[in-house]
Amino acid sequence: MFQALADPTRRAILDELQDRSGQTLFELCARLAMKHGTGSSRQAISQHLGVLEEAGLVHSRREGRYKFHDLDTSPLRDIVERWPVTDEERP
């Protein structure tokens, strides 16, 4: 999961899915280009989505001809619950 989060484009994808879950690849590409200046191709974004799915951070579902991508924050919650930060450790 940490490797999936290391890439800035994948973090931007997660930000977009946080703002509005259930987007198609076309919608994500458009939003990434407009808001983040990402010039990545649909194929590149699709590959990034595959990495995020393998990490369990994104789930996809098909409805007819469309494939929708949804954010899943449960893997991140699991990390936070396993290793909580104490007040002494906060900057």
UniProtKB/TrEMBL annotation:
Signal peptide: none annotated. PROSITE patterns: HTH_ARSR_2 (PS50987). Keywords: DNA-binding, Transcription, Transcription regulation. Pfam families: HTH_20. Residues 1-91 form the HTH arsR-type domain. GO terms for molecular function: DNA binding; DNA-binding transcription factor activity. InterPro entries: ArsR-like_HTH (IPR011991), HTH_ArsR_DNA-bd_dom (IPR001845), HTH_MetalResp_TranReg (IPR051081), WH-like_DNA-bd_sf (IPR036388), WH_DNA-bd_sf (IPR036390). This is Transcriptional regulator, ArsR family. It comes from Haloechinothrix alba.
